[in-house]
């Protein structure tokens, strides 16, 4: 039995589906409940009367739902085909069935239905979704739940509304962030986004890529990152068709530091740890930003005590450029909700207890209840846990990086 995501009592649930879809007109029908082409259903007419199972019909994207006008009584459901993600004709068909023809029974979306469409499908009046093959129905239901849609039957002419204020606030944050990103791109055509490939930064990448903004995305490969983190570069390429530029440290500087202090000097003192971070992160960052007028980060205020006053927009005085933190007021839940809704690829380490991910030797998984940044440089005090990327570098360090 295949499975559906179904909206019931304002909740999204995964349910079994006992209907068999028969796409070919005139084909022999199996026993039990069937869904057949709408035109076939009309053509068969009385001949279907002797069947014991229920009958639903499906409409293709080019079909006029008016063919069902005055014939909807007695149907078990109407299924509307979405042949591909970008084909929006099914939304109009659904809305017409609900609003013009008064269909109050099950309205099902079938075909290439993705979970980030569910929100919009519900608004058009759909209440059941047969996801595309291979899609995770439970994940889709969870994503939908997260947005707490107050599903209303669109046949009453009212616009479905968001169920609670938290969901509305989350939606408003997304809209505001999109506007901010568009404003940054317009004001700073040379803006660059320093991505750590974390969940936050993949969400920001998604927002940039979906809007087609000309913001360059780069990452700092310190040479000590987890393979899972580096794997996100390929994930972004596959998902968004963008190439995340990789900045690397100067090999001679890394070698000199290791020769002088050892490969694990960062455990020995804050100074040596910051020296390693400078060589592997800060200097490549300075190089990536040289000559630009603005840069972006995926930092959030509630990530760490050191970020509690993080502004959305600030001036990086040492670098003489604007700095934007578009997700400054997003919570971790906001990030995960967005990622679930838009199927943003995430570093698998997040699911293994790493809410914050840095270099492999300097990051560990956290235990339940621990601070999200507890796994970063865990041997240091919480108020020292920054790598220097977001501190104002000295003029001298900028000169050496240029
Ligand atoms: S996080 Fe650790 S390994 Fe990475 S650059 Fe900083 S000190 Fe070096």
Unreliable stretches covering 5 or more consecutive residues:
148-163, 395-402
The number of domains: 2
- Return Rg in Å: 27 Å
Distance between the termini: 62 Å
Q: Find the CATH superfamily of the largest domain.
A: HUPs
Which compounds are bound in this model?
iron/sulfur cluster
**Helix segment count?**
11
Task: Describe it.
The N and C termini lie far apart (62 Å). This protein has two domains: 2-162, TIM Barrel (Alpha-Beta Barrel), CATH 3.20.20; 168-401, 3-Layer(aba) Sandwich (Rossmann fold), CATH 3.40.50.620. It is an alpha/beta fold. The longest helix is centred in the middle third of the chain and has 23 residues, at 165-187. The strands form three sheets. An eight-stranded mixed beta sheet has the order 2-1-8-7-6-5-4-3. Mean pLDDT is 84; it is low at 148-163 and 395-402. It contains eleven helices and 16 strands. The site of iron/sulfur cluster has 13 residues, from helix 9.
Any chance you could write out the topology, listing elements then pairs?
Layout: E1 2-8, E2 11-17, E3 20-21, E4 34-37, H1 38-44, E5 55-59, E6 77-82, H2 89-99, E7 106-111, H3 118-124, E8 128-129, H4 137-146, E9 149-150, E10 161-162, H5 165-187, E11 192-195, H6 199-211, E12 216-220, H7 227-240, E13 245-247, H8 251-261, H9 270-289, E14 294-296, E15 313-316, E16 321-324, H10 332-341, H11 395-401
Parallel strand pairs: 3-4, 4-5, 5-6, 6-7, 7-8, 11-12, 11-14, 12-13, 14-16
Antiparallel strand pairs: 1-2, 1-8, 9-10, 15-16
Helix pairs in contact: 4-10, 6-10, 8-9, 9-11
